[in-house]
Write a structure and sequence with these properties.
The protein has 230 residues and is α+β, with helices and mostly antiparallel strands. The protein is built from seven helices and four strands.
C-alpha cells in the first residue's frame, strides 16, 4: 500500500514546526537564565527586588534540601505567591522602582501578567498550611521591611502555624549558613526581627485566629421562596 504524498508532506511539516517551537522555547529559557544571571551580577553590591526574588526561591530550595521536600503542587503555589508579592520585593527600592522594572520582571520570570491575588482550592490534607508556612519563612528571610499577616480558622492553628514559620526560618538560616536575625519581639501571635539591611529593616510576621460570623437569617435581597410542588 503506497503512502499518500500529502500525508508524508503533512507529517514532515508538522515535525518541522514542532522542532522550531522547541528550539524557540529552549532559546527563551537560556536567554531568561542569562538575563537573570547578568541582572544579579549588576545588582550584587546592594539588594534589589530582583535579588530578593531569587533569595526567596533560594530559601525555598533550602527547605527542599533539609528534610522538607515540596510537592509538585506546593512548588506551583510558591511560584504563584512570588508573582503575587512582586511589588513587595521592590518596596524598599525607591519610588517607581517596580513600575520601571515591571517589563524586565515579566521577561526574566516568564510571566504574562502580575496579579496580586492567589486563590488556592484543594482537598483537605493537601499541604496548603505547610506551603503557607514555608513561603512566609522564605519571605521574611529574603525581603526587607516586610510585614506578613496570616489568618487561620482558630487560635490553635494560628499558634501552630507561627511555630512552623519560626522552625522553617531557622532551618533556612542553618542550611544557607546565614546568621540569624536579631529577635526584637516574639509571642504567640507575632514575631518581629531586625533585618540586615539597616535599622529601618524591621520584619514582622503575624499569625492571628480569624472570626467568621454567619448571619442567623438571610438579608432581604438574598431571600427566596421554594418552588411550588407539582
Amino acid at each position: 500500500m503506497e503512502t499518500c504524498p500529502w500525508r508524508v508532506y503533512y507529517c514532515s511539516r508538522s515535525d518541522a514546526i514542532r522542532r522550531a517551537v522547541e528550539r524557540e522555547a529552549a532559546k527563551r529559557t537560556l536567554t531568561n537564565s542569562l538575563q537573570r544571571h547578568l541582572t544579579l551580577q549588576k545588582t550584587s553590591q546592594g539588594a534589589t527586588g530582583f535579588s530578593r526574588i531569587e533569595r526567596c526561591r533560594e530559601a525555598l530550595r533550602a527547605l527542599d534540601m533539609c528534610g522538607w521536600a515540596r510537592s509538585f503542587h506546593q512548588k506551583q503555589f510558591h511560584e504563584s505567591y512570588i508573582r503575587a508579592c512582586a511589588r513587595v520585593f521592590f518596596k524598599t527600592d525607591g519610588p517607581g522602582a517596580f513600575a520601571r522594572n515591571q517589563k524586565q520582571l515579566l521577561e526574566l520570570n516568564g510571566w504574562d501578567h502580575i496579579a496580586q491575588e492567589v486563590l488556592v482550592s484543594t482537598p483537605r490534607r493537601f499541604g496548603k498550611t505547610v506551603s503557607i508556612s514555608m513561603f512566609a519563612a522564605a519571605l521574611i528571610f529574603s525581603t526587607a521591611s516586610v510585614e506578613c499577616s496570616i489568618y487561620s480558622t482558630c487560635k490553635r492553628i494560628s499558634t501552630k502555624l507561627l511555630r512552623k514559620v519560626v522552625d522553617y526560618l531557622n532551618r533556612i538560616h542553618e542550611h544557607l549558613k546565614v546568621p540569624k536575625f536579631k529577635e526584637i519581639r516574639a509571642n504567640q501571635e507575632e514575631l518581629v526581627l531586625q533585618g540586615p539591611e539597616g535599622p529601618q529593616d524591621v520584619r514582622i510576621m503575624s499569625s492571628y485566629p480569624s472570626k467568621v460570623l454567619v448571619p442567623p437569617t438571610l438579608p432581604p435581597f438574598m431571600s427566596f421562596s421554594p418552588p411550588p410542588l407539582l
